[in-house]
Amino acid sequence: PAGLLISPATWQRDNDPIFFWEPPLAAPEVAGYSYGIDQAPDDAIDTTSLSFHVATGGSGPWTDGKHTFAVKAINTAGNAGAPLQIEIWVDTTPPQIVTYTPSPGTLFNTVSPAVSVTVSDGGSGVSQTSVSLFVNGGAASIAFSEATGVMTATGGSWQEGVNSLELRVADLVWNTQAP
Fold this sequence. Notes:
The chain is mainly β. It has strands at residues 11-12, 18-20, 30-37, 51-53, 65-75, 84-90, 96-101, 115-120, 132-135, 138-139, 141-144, 150-154, 165-168.
């Protein structure tokens, strides 16, 4: 996910991958290859190349979600081999804030009001290590449930008058929501 090789069935941010393949070793002359994106390849030759780039191939960039790329060789007699298939999971969207309390401008009569935020990520998910809350620039103690996306906080550097809260959150492939 972070280098030249994308592991199959792993969340990553590359939404226009390049696929490379090698011709089959024990096959009669290969005339070309058929590929399918999110579907099985047919028996028509799409390319004689040994690669496919999503960005320049007319099918990209891919939307967030799970995608399948399949390719198979077709020989000069028109016979096709079994397809090779790889599943790629794309996540380019940062987590979203669904709900939060307190609302801006809320008045409190306590020195440490409770803060609650629900975040959601439609792709890779949110990890507890990527969530933090700052009250007037000081870190607050938080609890975060990866299962529900709910963060609660207590403490922090609350002061009399106006206070500033800053939430920082990223998903598992480090798409970051603006604080």
